[in-house]
Amino acid sequence: SGILFMNRYEIQVLDSWENPTYADGQAGSNYGQWPPLVNAMRKPGEWNMYDIVFEAPRFADGKLVKPGYATVFHNGVVLQNRAEILGDTPHARNGKYVAHGAEEPLQLQNHGAMVRYRNIWVRRLRGYDEP
Predict the structure, then answer these.
(1) Each residue of 14-29: pLDDT tens digit?
(2) Which has the closest alpha carbon to 97: 63, 49, 48?
């Protein structure tokens, strides 16, 4: 299960409570790229909370000019600290960037597992002087 930003950059939300898995597939990982700094998963039956700051990559003339970044807090604990996104996040291959629009959908996925989401907030972050 994961949260996909722009349908291509995944932050993993897999249940990692006493559930060993590969490092960059644990809850809070930048899937397939960066493992979480710690495992902050609560036991089954308790709600988990994620705060994710996603900085989308930027492209000009079809070329990458600024990579994406993700900062992830899980249950109040930092798991990713402005980790550079190394392209899309496919299974079992290195990611690559493909030019895309400045904003695209957020996707929640579950791969057939029972996952519940609630209180999802999405907001654009702007500079301090921007309305």
Answers:
(1) 888 988 788 888 999 9
(2) 63
